[in-house]
Each structure stands twice: as C-alpha cells, then as structure tokens.
Amino acid sequence: MKRTGAQILWECLVREGVTTVFGYPGGAILPAYDAMLDYPIRHVLVRHEQGATHMADGYARASGRVGVAIATSGPGATNMVTGIATAMMDSVPIVCITGQVGSKLIGSDGFQETDITGVTLPVTKHNYLVTRAQDIGPAVREAFHIASSGRPGPVLIDITKDAQQSSCEFDWEQAAPKPHARPERIVNPDSMATALQLINSAQRPVILAGHGVIVSNASATVREFAERAQIPIAMTLLGIGGIPASHPLNLGMMGMHGEAWVNTAIQEADLLLAFGMRFDDRVTGNLKTYAPNARKVHIDIDPAEIGKNVPVDVGLVGDLGTMLESLLPRVAPGGRDAWLQHINGMKGESAVRDIKNLPDDGHLYAAHVIHDLWRATDGRAIVVTDVGQHQMWEAQYYHHDEPRTLITSGGLGTMGFALPAAIGAKMARPEAEVWVVAGDGGFQMTMPELATIAQEKLDINIAIINNGYLGMVRQWQEFFYERRYAATPLLSPDFVKLAEAFGLAGAAITRRSEVIPAIESARQHAGTVVLEFRVEQEDTVYPMVPAGADLHAMIRRPSPLVETAEDA
Q1: Strands 2-4 and 167-169: what pairing?
Q2: DSSP class per residue in 516-565
Q3: Three-state secondary structure of 421-439
Q4: At what angle do helices 389-397 and 471-480 cross, to 10 degrees?
Q5: Dihedral of CA 194/198/201/207: which sign?
Q6: Any residues with CB less than 8 A from the CB of 311 and at least 6 apart, and which?
Q7: Which residues, listed in sequence order, are joined to residue 529 by a DSSP beta bridge?
Q8: What is the mean pLDDT of each run of 10 residues along the chain (568 residues)?
C-alpha cells in the first residue's frame, strides 16, 4: 500500500510501540506533523528542543524503553545537541528525528539548513540522512534496534522535506533491520577461570556497581552474587538504585563526593570487581594511586571500555547479568566477616551522615531538605536531579532502594536537565510520584518547561534548592581560588510568583520545621507545586576529592560540626 514518507514515519513509530513523542514543529518537519494527527501518538509540545531530548531521555531512563524527540531543521536540530550528548555519555536509548531542507537544497546554505548528521557524529551511536521516502522505514526500524541493543545510546534520523512528502510502497517486514556481521564474542575459558580464582582468593574485595547494573536489569543477579560471596558494593552515581541502599552490603557512593569509608575501602581493597561501570575520572581520582594493591576484574558490554582508563587483570565482554550467572555457581561462599567489620568500623561518626541531625538553629541546610524529602516519601519517589551541589546531596541523603528511581545527568553533567527529564519520567510512569530536585542555577536554564507541565496538566513536584550561587562552582572557588567568587553570585526570580504565573502552586521555605509540612502539602495537592527552599548560602558538599587528587585525599567536613552532631 502506498504511503507518504511522513505516514511511513508514524506507522513505524506506532509499530515500535511508541505512544509519546516530545517535540517542536517547524517548516522542514511540517509534513510529518500534518501526518501525525492520523496516528495514536501523544505529542508533548516542549518550549525548547533541548527540553525535548531531555524529556525523551527521562522517559527512557524511567521506563527502559526508547524515548523519542522530534524537531525541525537548523536551530531546531542544533538545539537538540546537548540533550543528545547527555544521552550518549550516559548510555540512554533515544531516537531523535529532525526535518531537513529538500534534498535538492542540501549544500546550498538554504534557509534553516544545517548538516546535523555531521554535527552529531561524535555524540550519537549512529545517525542517518534520509532523502527518499522508501528509506524512512528501514532507517527508523534500524535506529530503534541500534539505540536499544548492546550498549544503548542515541540515534538521529534526519529526513529531508521531500522524502516526507513523496510516496512509495511500504512493507513493514521488508523494512526490518538487516543482520550486521559482527565477530562472535566468545569468552575465553581461561579468563573466566582467572576471574574466579581472583574472586575466590580475595580477602578484601569490593564490587563497583555502575549504570550497567540497571541497564542490563542485573540488579537481582548482582545482589545474589554479592550475598553469596559476602562482598561489599560501592555505587557510582548512575548505579544508585541498582542495589537497595538499605542492603547491608551496599556501602554507598564512591568517588569525588562519595562516602569517606567507601573510598578508603577501595584504596585498601585487594580486588575490584567492576560491574557495568567505566572508571570515570570522578570515580577514580589520580589513576597512578588508584586502588594500588587491588587486582581488577572488569565486566562490560562495550569492549572499548575494557582497559581504557584503568588497566585490568581480567576483562570479560558481554551482558553483565549473563556473565554473572555463569560465574555464580563457581563462586565460593562467604568468609569475609573481618573485612566487612573493618569497613563498618571505618564509618564511625561520618559527617556525611551526621549533618542532617543538627538541631534546628534557624539555618536551613540542603541536606535537611533532601533527607526530609526521603523521609516524607518513604524513599519511593522517582527523583530527577539537576547538576551541582544538590545533585551530590541527593545521592548522599535520599536512599534509593529501587532501580530507575534516581535520574540524573552523570557523564556530561548537564545543567537544566532535571525539569524536562522529570516530564519525560512522569509520561513514562504516570502512576509514580516524581520529584524534581534542582538548584537555582540549573532550574533557570530550562524553567520555560513549566509551561509544558501546565499545558499537559502533569503532577510533578519541584524542590528548588536556592542558595543564591552557582553552588558547586562557588565551592571550587572557595577551596581553590581563595574565595574569589567570580560570576557565581546568582540573582533569581521569585520562584513562587513564577509558579503562579504558569498557573501552578508555589511556596517558599526558610526553616527546617517547615520542610516536611511543605512536602506533605505538595504531595496532597492535585497538580504541580514549586517549593523554593532558601538554604544556607555557603554550604559545602563533603567529603570532596579535589580533581586529579588521590582518592584517599579527601577534604572532610570540619570537625566542630561533627562534634555537635548526634549519631544517626
């Protein structure tokens, strides 16, 4: 049956299971938008195309399905680049569809022409320029396969206007992705045997659990592995939720702002088991002194990550869950009580845990807000954070027991991510309680998406941690630039009035005694509530490993604060 290229596009999306897309129309994509009205797809009108990509990203992270964003050519396409790069760095499956000028105009510098496939080549898993209607179906079907298979990532399809308008015969089966010849990955039995020997002989092992634990749906398997072998687990930022925070073997987050005892345990370990993580610089600190006495076993689906940053003794390439299921029956049980007791002894009265127990002395700390949000929601909410100090406080004080309940930009560190990504998460899981935790800086980057929330009538609660600074940059200036606060003091609008301007509810909170009542009120309100928490301005995230420093060279919270704290 003959269809236009625009119709083929939507036909393929519907058959791929897509029910929601996030986008913004324009001239070069207009034929597709006209055809969209005849298909059962909900279109969410964003206020900026970067928001569309973050929404698709949040949708994918919350659901495990492919998120879809759509935009026109030129500025519409280039506005998507930051969101595409964010998804690429964090291995998130999204498909971005852009309109392009007519094929005869390509290369002529036509109105709103941009070589978006060239622009996005470094930040996509794959991309396409489609100039014929008959190539749209195969491109869309293959794009979904590539985005979601192996190590997930973003794929862009750029479709010329004439390809959308012209017609051709369409056959769904004929458009199926063609098999790609790939070298068969056979795990060397000697490598498996060496890995098992290292695991079973280690006295002080630590599992490093990354985003791959969640992406591969291997949480239960990793937990079973750790419980059988009695090996403690350290989490990367994006691995949080992969293992319940309440599990006794879960030590907490590692790295630059990780728990002090976690980083110390890694430095003292005799074996590191890296599961679906990539030894990011924010995790390792100085590579020359990183875990100096530890042998290393790395399991990852991407062979490019094995040995890329940290040399390893054994690299196993494949799906994490499948690999662990092969190892599990041959892993020796238990026998590491002394190591676990030693780590528990290192925890002591950690300032990271203790600040939340300071008395209400009129000062409101961000840690209070995050900890009380965790208490009020019983730790069951999906929390979408922006980037900065509040992001680290959330990782420290909101204890996630379920996968896909912390959504945040890790590798790219994209400010402005939280608000649009939360919209995507809510669209993916409408039954879930969704909270935005954002700083006053990052929130202002994408706050026009409040209009999207209002137009779609979504119930998303927003906690703005307002300290009047670009907080994490200010912290670096405090520690390393003699408190010379260049361009970090920040003027913000009245966020309560801003919420009301969009037809949303808002409230400002200045004392800890007001925090839980405000959160409970927002939870009971039918619709979105913007809560502005006016917190201590020059508060600091502790501990902190300076960039490039040894992992054990942490800046700790000053001792007077610890001495006045009560034990958790």
Answers
A1: antiparallel
A2: HHHHHHHHHSSS-EEEEEE--TT---SSB--TTS-TT-PBPPPHHHHHTP
A3: HHHHHHHHCCCCCEEEEEE
A4: 100
A5: negative
A6: 296
A7: 505
A8: 96 98 98 98 98 98 98 98 98 98 96 98 98 98 97 98 98 89 75 97 98 98 98 98 98 96 97 98 97 98 96 96 96 94 83 58 91 97 98 97 98 98 98 98 98 98 98 96 97 98 98 96 98 96 94 82 38
560 preceded by cis ω (within 30°)?
no
Spatial separation of the C-alpha atoms in residues 103 and 379, rounded to whole Å: 52
Active site residues: 49, 111-112, 161, 472
DSSP strand E in 278-354: where?
Answer: 295-300, 314-317
d(CA 267, CA 327): 25
Contact 556, 351 (CB under 8 A): yes
What single-letter DSSP state applies at residue 358? S
| Rounded distance between C-alpha atoms, residue 115 and residue 137, angstroms | 21
Q: Are strands 67-71 and 42-45 parallel, antiparallel or unpaired?
A: unpaired
Query: Could you give the domains of the chain?
Result: 2-169 (3.40.50.970), 189-347 (3.40.50.1220), 351-563 (3.40.50.970)
Beta carbons within 8 Å of 454's beta carbon, 6+ residues apart:
502, 503, 504, 528
Q: Give the contacts of 323 (CB within 8 A, at least 6 positions apart).
A: 187, 299, 316
Residue keyed to tokens 């950690």: 350
Read off the tokens for 126: 């794959």
Global pTM value? 0.96
